[in-house]
Amino acid sequence: MISIRLASVRETRPREYLLRFVFGGAATVLAALVARYFGPGPGGLFMAFPAIFPAAATLMEAHSKQRMAQIGHDGTNRGRIGAGIDAASAALGSVGLAGFALVVWLLLAHHNAVLIVLAATCVWALVSIALWELRRRRIFGVRLRWMR
Length: 148
Fold this sequence. Notes:
Layout: H1 7-11, H2 14-38, H3 40-47, H4 53-70, H5 76-107, H6 113-136
C-alpha cells in the first residue's frame, strides 16, 4: 500500500540528508563530466542514473534494523526486504522515466520546452502509476512474495 509517513522525516538525521545530497550531487557532476568529454548522448545515459536511490536504500535498511532492534529483534532481513521493495518500485519508475525521455526526445525540438517537460512529467507519473497498479493486480502473472 502506498502511503506517506511524515514521522520518517523526523527520524532522518542531518548526516543522512547530507549523504543523499552528496551522492546525488556526485552523480550529477559525473554525468556533466561525461557529457562534456564524450558528448550529450553518453551524458544523457549517465543523467538517467538513479542519484538518490542507492543512498535511500541503504538508509532504509539501516532504519528498519534500528526500529527492530528497539523491540529486541535483528531486523536485517526486514531491512533487506524493504530495500528490495523500494528497488522494485524504482524499476517501475525507471520505465516511466523512459516514457518521459521519449516524450522530450520526440517533441522538444518542435514545441515550448516548459510545456513539453510538463507533459513528459505527466507521462512519467501515469506510466509509473499504471505499472504499479498492474503489478498490484497481478496482471503480469507474477507476484513476488515480498511485494505485498
